[in-house]
Amino acid sequence: MKTPPPSELVAEWPLPPLASLGSTVRAIGIQRELRRHLPWKMRGFLRVDGNQAVLHLPIEEKEAFSAASAKIATAIEEISAYPVLPSEVEDILGISSRERHKWMKQSRLKSAGTRTVKMRGRAKAVTFHVFDAQHIEDILDRDLPTIWRQEDAAMSAENRKRAAAKRRQTRTQARSQSGCAGSADDASGSKLEGWDVFAAEGLLRAPRK
């Protein structure tokens, strides 16, 4: 029994280890970047499936298939140099947007530069930080987000402790100042009116003999 001729042309390329970093979000981004190298009508025939890119075209598109395959093969060689986008970083490391901003400010998470794009439906372009794939891989391998969260929790606890101690000190000083003011008022209030004149007249002195 003869094997029926193939109905489509298929090419597959393994992705480099630094490609998706286990992130579905980044895999979608890589697929989008690879498709940009193809004519618009052919972009839907390329997909990223797991750790490989797959191109499939109808058998009649042999010439277009050869040209597209060459472009994709060249593009895949550059995948490891693709910057990691903010949404991809959050998915790869399992962190929140708030943590990403905080750790960037603390220079734990290092920016590899910025990118500016014009978004559909927005009048102004959007500028955001991007990250080096090797830097993100190192953070992932060392599980640094877990360590950073522990350090942040310890720092927050210490800050709360210091703030509570400062509030206690402030209340103690306020009570002390209030007590001193009360003693002064008592001393002045206990002095009889005209006492100085009364004493000056010598009325308290013993009568002379």
TrEMBL record:
Region spans: Disordered: 158-190
Name of this chain's protein: Uncharacterized protein
Organism listed in the record: Bosea rubneri
